[in-house]
Amino acid sequence: MVLLQIRNLNVYYNTLIGKVKILNDLNLDVDYGDIVGVVGESGSGKSTLGYAIAKILPPNASMTGEILFEGVNLLNLDEKEMQKYRGTQIFMVFQNALNSLNPVKKVGFQLEEALKIKYQKMGKKVSEDEIYKEVIDVFKDLRLPDPEVIYERYPHQLSGGQIQRVIIAMALLLRPKLLIADEPTSAIDVTLQAQVVNLFKQINQEAKISIIFITHDISLAYAMSNRILVLYAGRIMEEGNTEEIIKDPMHPYTQGLIASIPKVSKSSGKLYSIPGLPPSFYTLPAGCKFHPRCPKVMPICKEKEPQEVHVNNRRVRCWLYE
Ligand code: SF4
Known about the structure:
Largest sheet: 8 strands, mixed
Strand order of the largest sheet: 6-7-8-3-9-10-12-11
Shape: globular
Structural class: alpha/beta
Bound molecules: iron/sulfur cluster
Number of helices: 11
């Protein structure tokens, strides 16, 4: 069953030098219980996609298309109506988690408040002690040291990794229908990343929470998601089942991302990286936006942009499959 349907979504930014298109005619379905990994280098538009769904784009942004959440087009909602969804039904974990917390309130108090609102909406009576215990238990799950002490701290008294885990704790406690996680493990020590990924998977399986997991790291998307969407220059380049994409990537950009994953068995030799840099949205090349970096480029690629085509179970945007 579909939780989220994105239809022909375009996102624009008005800038001093004109209107620039960041997301281009994007379509995506997210089912209940799905984990979709959104993968791409920085500047591909993947964070913009998360902000667009939560409707927290900067004031100079505009959108066209539809974002249907349980059939309701979020683009038609005003800010007051949107607040009913944001936080409790759609929750976003940001890369820079500090901005998500109130600097003058203790972190435990902020989580407590969020939980109380959730239970109020559910019409469920829960005691202060039960709420406190619930928060402390999630802190323990996230291996936050001295959870009772962290509870009493202000955000500025915590490290970046601790703040990130407090925000993840909020997501785990609120159990929204859709969790959008934007590079959620980037501020966390590598040894903890696997544990956080497992916690996300656990809440996904237990509570059927759908997750959009935004990352530049395709190996992390592989560990986390059941579907992968590869973005480049604001366009979907490939989308499909995670296992199938990792085993048999069709798009040359996906192939490059997978070839760039460090291999444990390769003790010598240089690590592959895709040549060149992602293009600026102000100066996108003609034709296929990936053509200046593509090892399989053909004459048509430089002139005409390929459309998305369906091949087997996959969506792919490349002239090799037209
Ligand atoms: Fe490469 Fe051409 Fe495919 Fe673009 S359309 S990815 S340039 S082969």
